[in-house]
Design goal:
Blueprint lengths: L8 H11 L28 E4 L6 E6 L2 E5 L8 E6 L4 E4 L8 H8 L4 E4 L5 H4 L8 E4 L2 H6 L5 H4 L29 E3 L4 E3 L4 E6 L8 E5 L4 E5 L7 E3 L6 H12 L7 E4 L10 H13 L4 E4 L4 E6 L2 E6 L5
Parallel strand pairs: 5-6, 6-7, 7-8, 12-14, 13-17
Antiparallel strand pairs: 1-2, 2-3, 3-4, 4-5, 9-10, 10-11, 11-12, 15-16, 16-17
Protein backbone atom coordinates (compact mmCIF):
# COMPACT_ATOMS: atom_id res chain seq x y z
CA UNK A 1 0.00 0.00 0.00
CA UNK A 2 1.08 3.60 -0.45
CA UNK A 3 2.80 5.64 2.25
CA UNK A 4 1.08 8.90 3.14
CA UNK A 5 2.38 11.21 5.87
CA UNK A 6 3.25 9.24 9.01
CA UNK A 7 1.42 10.45 12.11
CA UNK A 8 0.49 9.09 15.53
CA UNK A 9 0.51 5.43 14.55
CA UNK A 10 1.52 4.26 18.01
CA UNK A 11 -1.71 5.69 19.41
CA UNK A 12 -3.75 4.03 16.68
CA UNK A 13 -2.04 0.71 17.23
CA UNK A 14 -2.57 0.85 20.98
CA UNK A 15 -6.27 1.52 20.45
CA UNK A 16 -6.49 -1.36 17.99
CA UNK A 17 -4.90 -3.75 20.47
CA UNK A 18 -7.23 -2.56 23.21
CA UNK A 19 -10.51 -3.02 21.36
CA UNK A 20 -10.08 -5.83 18.87
CA UNK A 21 -9.94 -8.66 21.38
CA UNK A 22 -7.59 -11.37 22.63
CA UNK A 23 -6.10 -12.13 19.21
CA UNK A 24 -4.43 -8.73 19.31
CA UNK A 25 -2.44 -9.74 22.40
CA UNK A 26 -1.14 -13.07 21.13
CA UNK A 27 2.41 -11.70 21.01
CA UNK A 28 3.98 -9.55 23.71
CA UNK A 29 5.98 -7.55 21.16
CA UNK A 30 4.20 -7.81 17.80
CA UNK A 31 6.09 -6.76 14.71
CA UNK A 32 4.43 -3.69 13.22
CA UNK A 33 4.18 -3.77 9.41
CA UNK A 34 5.58 -0.71 7.68
CA UNK A 35 2.22 0.22 6.10
CA UNK A 36 0.64 0.28 9.56
CA UNK A 37 3.03 3.02 10.68
CA UNK A 38 1.31 5.50 8.36
CA UNK A 39 -1.93 5.24 10.34
CA UNK A 40 -4.08 7.08 11.14
CA UNK A 41 -4.09 8.83 7.77
CA UNK A 42 -4.35 12.61 8.22
CA UNK A 43 -7.31 13.10 5.84
CA UNK A 44 -9.63 11.35 8.28
CA UNK A 45 -9.27 14.23 10.72
CA UNK A 46 -11.21 16.39 8.25
CA UNK A 47 -14.12 13.94 8.02
CA UNK A 48 -16.99 13.42 10.43
CA UNK A 49 -16.78 10.06 12.14
CA UNK A 50 -20.34 8.93 12.69
CA UNK A 51 -20.47 5.51 14.26
CA UNK A 52 -18.68 3.05 16.50
CA UNK A 53 -20.58 -0.23 16.12
CA UNK A 54 -17.82 -2.71 15.38
CA UNK A 55 -14.13 -2.03 16.17
CA UNK A 56 -13.01 -3.65 12.91
CA UNK A 57 -14.61 -0.78 10.96
CA UNK A 58 -14.43 2.99 11.08
CA UNK A 59 -17.34 4.87 9.50
CA UNK A 60 -17.13 8.41 8.14
CA UNK A 61 -19.53 10.77 6.42
CA UNK A 62 -17.90 11.29 3.01
CA UNK A 63 -20.75 13.37 1.51
CA UNK A 64 -24.42 13.96 2.32
CA UNK A 65 -26.06 10.54 2.81
CA UNK A 66 -22.82 8.79 1.79
CA UNK A 67 -20.95 6.76 4.40
CA UNK A 68 -17.41 5.48 3.94
CA UNK A 69 -17.01 2.14 5.77
CA UNK A 70 -13.26 1.80 6.27
CA UNK A 71 -11.24 -1.27 7.33
CA UNK A 72 -7.98 0.17 8.71
CA UNK A 73 -6.70 -2.98 10.40
CA UNK A 74 -5.84 -4.87 7.20
CA UNK A 75 -3.25 -3.84 4.62
CA UNK A 76 -5.72 -3.26 1.80
CA UNK A 77 -7.42 -0.53 3.89
CA UNK A 78 -10.59 -1.26 1.95
CA UNK A 79 -13.35 1.33 1.82
CA UNK A 80 -16.95 0.37 1.02
CA UNK A 81 -19.62 3.03 0.53
CA UNK A 82 -23.22 3.11 1.70
CA UNK A 83 -25.21 5.54 -0.48
CA UNK A 84 -28.66 6.30 0.93
CA UNK A 85 -31.72 7.39 -1.03
CA UNK A 86 -35.31 8.02 0.05
CA UNK A 87 -36.52 4.50 -0.78
CA UNK A 88 -33.45 2.27 -0.63
CA UNK A 89 -29.70 2.32 -0.12
CA UNK A 90 -26.85 0.89 -2.16
CA UNK A 91 -23.71 -0.63 -0.68
CA UNK A 92 -20.86 -0.19 -3.16
CA UNK A 93 -18.60 -3.11 -2.21
CA UNK A 94 -18.84 -5.23 0.93
CA UNK A 95 -15.22 -5.35 2.06
CA UNK A 96 -13.13 -8.21 3.40
CA UNK A 97 -15.81 -10.27 5.09
CA UNK A 98 -13.70 -10.34 8.25
CA UNK A 99 -16.40 -8.70 10.36
CA UNK A 100 -20.13 -8.03 10.01
CA UNK A 101 -20.68 -5.22 7.51
CA UNK A 102 -24.42 -5.89 7.39
CA UNK A 103 -24.63 -5.03 11.08
CA UNK A 104 -22.97 -1.71 10.30
CA UNK A 105 -25.32 -0.84 7.41
CA UNK A 106 -28.39 -1.76 9.47
CA UNK A 107 -27.36 0.83 12.04
CA UNK A 108 -26.74 3.49 9.39
CA UNK A 109 -30.08 3.14 7.58
CA UNK A 110 -33.46 1.44 7.99
CA UNK A 111 -33.97 1.37 4.21
CA UNK A 112 -33.50 -1.83 2.19
CA UNK A 113 -29.87 -2.26 1.10
CA UNK A 114 -28.82 -3.60 -2.30
CA UNK A 115 -25.23 -4.45 -3.18
CA UNK A 116 -23.11 -3.47 -6.17
CA UNK A 117 -19.41 -4.29 -6.47
CA UNK A 118 -16.79 -2.08 -8.06
CA UNK A 119 -15.22 -5.38 -9.17
CA UNK A 120 -15.07 -8.87 -7.73
CA UNK A 121 -11.62 -9.24 -6.18
CA UNK A 122 -12.05 -10.95 -2.83
CA UNK A 123 -11.40 -7.84 -0.71
CA UNK A 124 -14.49 -6.16 -2.19
CA UNK A 125 -17.05 -8.99 -2.05
CA UNK A 126 -16.45 -10.50 1.39
CA UNK A 127 -19.86 -9.51 2.74
CA UNK A 128 -21.92 -10.10 -0.42
CA UNK A 129 -23.39 -13.32 0.96
CA UNK A 130 -25.08 -11.38 3.76
CA UNK A 131 -27.37 -9.44 1.42
CA UNK A 132 -30.45 -10.64 -0.45
CA UNK A 133 -29.92 -8.60 -3.63
CA UNK A 134 -26.62 -8.19 -5.48
CA UNK A 135 -26.12 -6.52 -8.84
CA UNK A 136 -23.32 -7.96 -10.98
CA UNK A 137 -21.65 -7.48 -14.33
CA UNK A 138 -22.33 -10.20 -16.89
CA UNK A 139 -18.75 -11.54 -17.18
CA UNK A 140 -17.06 -14.89 -16.71
CA UNK A 141 -14.72 -13.22 -14.22
CA UNK A 142 -17.68 -12.17 -12.06
CA UNK A 143 -19.26 -15.61 -12.16
CA UNK A 144 -16.00 -17.33 -11.24
CA UNK A 145 -15.41 -15.05 -8.26
CA UNK A 146 -19.00 -15.49 -7.04
CA UNK A 147 -18.03 -19.06 -6.12
CA UNK A 148 -15.84 -17.73 -3.32
CA UNK A 149 -12.19 -18.35 -2.51
CA UNK A 150 -10.26 -19.66 0.47
CA UNK A 151 -6.71 -19.13 -0.83
CA UNK A 152 -7.18 -15.44 -1.65
CA UNK A 153 -8.82 -14.80 1.71
CA UNK A 154 -6.13 -16.61 3.68
CA UNK A 155 -3.43 -14.48 2.02
CA UNK A 156 -5.10 -11.38 3.50
CA UNK A 157 -4.63 -12.37 7.15
CA UNK A 158 -0.94 -13.20 7.35
CA UNK A 159 0.90 -11.18 10.06
CA UNK A 160 2.33 -8.67 7.58
CA UNK A 161 -1.22 -7.87 6.42
CA UNK A 162 -2.63 -6.96 9.82
CA UNK A 163 -2.41 -3.81 11.94
CA UNK A 164 -3.43 -4.87 15.41
CA UNK A 165 -5.55 -7.99 15.87
CA UNK A 166 -8.49 -9.72 14.26
CA UNK A 167 -12.00 -9.33 15.71
CA UNK A 168 -12.97 -11.28 18.79
CA UNK A 169 -14.54 -14.57 17.77
CA UNK A 170 -13.03 -14.54 14.28
CA UNK A 171 -11.54 -17.92 13.30
CA UNK A 172 -8.62 -17.41 10.89
CA UNK A 173 -8.45 -21.14 10.13
CA UNK A 174 -11.88 -21.14 8.49
CA UNK A 175 -11.70 -17.70 6.86
CA UNK A 176 -12.78 -17.74 3.22
CA UNK A 177 -14.70 -15.51 0.85
CA UNK A 178 -18.15 -17.10 0.92
CA UNK A 179 -20.11 -17.82 -2.28
CA UNK A 180 -22.78 -15.35 -3.35
CA UNK A 181 -25.25 -14.97 -6.21
CA UNK A 182 -25.88 -12.26 -8.79
CA UNK A 183 -29.54 -11.22 -8.49
CA UNK A 184 -29.55 -9.05 -11.61
CA UNK A 185 -26.99 -8.51 -14.35
CA UNK A 186 -26.05 -4.94 -15.18
CA UNK A 187 -24.17 -3.16 -17.94
CA UNK A 188 -22.60 0.15 -18.89
CA UNK A 189 -25.15 2.94 -18.58
CA UNK A 190 -27.46 1.00 -16.26
CA UNK A 191 -29.14 3.31 -13.73
CA UNK A 192 -30.23 2.53 -10.19
CA UNK A 193 -32.90 4.75 -8.64
CA UNK A 194 -32.60 4.91 -4.86
CA UNK A 195 -35.44 7.39 -4.53
CA UNK A 196 -34.38 11.00 -5.02
CA UNK A 197 -30.93 9.80 -6.04
CA UNK A 198 -29.93 8.06 -9.27
CA UNK A 199 -26.65 6.21 -9.72
CA UNK A 200 -25.21 5.43 -13.15
CA UNK A 201 -22.89 2.52 -13.87
CA UNK A 202 -19.80 3.22 -15.96
CA UNK A 203 -17.96 0.18 -17.27
CA UNK A 204 -14.27 0.87 -16.57
CA UNK A 205 -12.41 -2.38 -17.27
CA UNK A 206 -8.67 -2.69 -16.94
CA UNK A 207 -7.96 -3.51 -13.31
CA UNK A 208 -10.37 -6.41 -13.88
CA UNK A 209 -12.73 -7.29 -16.75
CA UNK A 210 -15.75 -6.48 -14.57
CA UNK A 211 -14.46 -3.22 -13.07
CA UNK A 212 -16.99 -0.39 -12.91
CA UNK A 213 -17.19 3.13 -11.57
CA UNK A 214 -20.36 4.62 -10.12
CA UNK A 215 -21.53 8.11 -11.01
CA UNK A 216 -23.87 10.20 -8.88
CA UNK A 217 -24.20 12.90 -11.51
CA UNK A 218 -26.59 15.20 -9.66
CA UNK A 219 -24.29 15.39 -6.64
CA UNK A 220 -20.99 15.43 -8.54
CA UNK A 221 -19.70 12.21 -6.98
CA UNK A 222 -17.66 9.55 -8.76
CA UNK A 223 -16.89 6.25 -7.01
CA UNK A 224 -13.88 4.76 -8.78
CA UNK A 225 -13.34 1.40 -7.07
CA UNK A 226 -9.80 0.22 -7.84
CA UNK A 227 -9.50 2.21 -11.05
CA UNK A 228 -8.13 4.99 -8.85
CA UNK A 229 -7.03 5.15 -5.22
CA UNK A 230 -4.09 7.03 -3.64
CA UNK A 231 -1.59 4.17 -3.40
CA UNK A 232 0.16 1.86 -5.88
CA UNK A 233 -2.68 0.79 -8.21
CA UNK A 234 -2.58 -2.95 -8.86
CA UNK A 235 -2.23 -3.62 -12.58
CA UNK A 236 -0.08 -6.75 -12.57
CA UNK A 237 -2.50 -9.65 -12.23
CA UNK A 238 -3.41 -11.93 -15.16
CA UNK A 239 -6.87 -10.37 -15.46
CA UNK A 240 -5.43 -6.88 -15.94
CA UNK A 241 -5.69 -5.24 -19.37
CA UNK A 242 -3.49 -2.12 -19.53
CA UNK A 243 -4.94 -0.86 -22.80
CA UNK A 244 -8.44 -1.11 -21.36
CA UNK A 245 -7.27 0.60 -18.17
CA UNK A 246 -5.89 3.60 -20.05
CA UNK A 247 -9.14 3.92 -22.02
CA UNK A 248 -11.13 3.76 -18.79
CA UNK A 249 -9.16 6.44 -16.96
CA UNK A 250 -9.46 8.71 -20.00
CA UNK A 251 -13.22 8.25 -19.86
CA UNK A 252 -13.28 9.20 -16.19
CA UNK A 253 -10.96 12.18 -16.71
CA UNK A 254 -13.44 13.61 -19.20
CA UNK A 255 -15.97 13.81 -16.35
CA UNK A 256 -13.70 15.84 -14.06
CA UNK A 257 -15.24 19.27 -14.85
CA UNK A 258 -18.65 18.15 -13.61
CA UNK A 259 -17.46 16.40 -10.44
CA UNK A 260 -17.14 17.53 -6.85
CA UNK A 261 -15.43 14.50 -5.32
CA UNK A 262 -13.68 11.31 -6.37
CA UNK A 263 -14.14 8.44 -3.93
CA UNK A 264 -11.73 5.51 -4.28
CA UNK A 265 -11.83 2.06 -2.68
CA UNK A 266 -8.63 2.07 -0.60
CA UNK A 267 -6.69 4.18 1.92
CA UNK A 268 -8.65 7.45 1.92
CA UNK A 269 -12.18 8.15 0.72
CA UNK A 270 -12.10 11.63 -0.80
CA UNK A 271 -9.92 13.17 -3.50
CA UNK A 272 -10.44 16.25 -5.71
CA UNK A 273 -11.51 15.58 -9.34
CA UNK A 274 -8.30 17.13 -10.67
CA UNK A 275 -6.65 13.79 -9.85
CA UNK A 276 -8.29 12.14 -12.86
CA UNK A 277 -6.55 13.97 -15.75
CA UNK A 278 -3.32 13.75 -13.73
CA UNK A 279 -3.84 9.99 -13.51
CA UNK A 280 -4.09 9.77 -17.30
CA UNK A 281 -0.83 11.67 -17.68
CA UNK A 282 0.87 9.41 -15.15
CA UNK A 283 -0.16 6.04 -16.60
CA UNK A 284 0.71 7.16 -20.13
CA UNK A 285 4.09 8.41 -18.94
CA UNK A 286 4.83 5.14 -17.17
CA UNK A 287 3.87 3.11 -20.23
CA UNK A 288 6.24 5.20 -22.33
CA UNK A 289 9.11 4.43 -19.96
CA UNK A 290 9.15 7.60 -17.89
CA UNK A 291 9.34 7.82 -14.11
CA UNK A 292 11.07 5.56 -11.63
CA UNK A 293 10.95 1.79 -11.16
CA UNK A 294 11.35 -0.06 -7.87
CA UNK A 295 11.23 -3.88 -7.52
CA UNK A 296 8.28 -5.03 -5.43
CA UNK A 297 8.66 -8.76 -4.92
CA UNK A 298 8.79 -11.65 -7.36
CA UNK A 299 7.65 -10.61 -10.82
CA UNK A 300 6.39 -7.15 -9.81
CA UNK A 301 7.65 -3.58 -9.82
CA UNK A 302 6.26 -0.23 -8.71
CA UNK A 303 6.39 2.39 -11.46
CA UNK A 304 6.06 5.95 -10.17
CA UNK A 305 5.50 9.28 -11.90
CA UNK A 306 4.72 12.64 -10.31
CA UNK A 307 3.00 11.31 -7.21
CA UNK A 308 1.22 8.37 -8.83
CA UNK A 309 2.36 4.76 -8.66
CA UNK A 310 1.33 1.55 -10.37
CA UNK A 311 2.17 -2.03 -9.42
CA UNK A 312 2.94 -3.71 -12.73
CA UNK A 313 4.24 -7.09 -13.82
CA UNK A 314 8.03 -6.81 -14.09
CA UNK A 315 8.05 -8.56 -17.46
CA UNK A 316 5.08 -6.71 -18.94
CA UNK A 317 5.09 -6.09 -22.68
CA UNK A 318 3.71 -2.84 -24.05
Amino acid sequence: MGNLEKTSWLVALALSLAVLGPAAHSQSQPQVPEWCRALPRPVYKSLERVLAIDPWFEVYKAAPSVFAIYEPHQAEEVISYLIVGHKQALLFDTGMGISDIRKVTSKLTSRPVVVLNSHTHNDHVGGNWQFAFVYGMDTDFTRANARGSRDDAQAEITPDQLCGGLPKGFDPKTYATKPWKVSRSIHDGFKINLGGRTLEILSTPGHTPDAISLLDRDNGLLFTGDTYYPAPIWLYRPETDLDAYVASVKRLAALAPELRLVLGAHNVPVTPPSVLPELVTAIEAVRSGKGTIQPAGAGKAIHSFEGFSFLLAADRKE
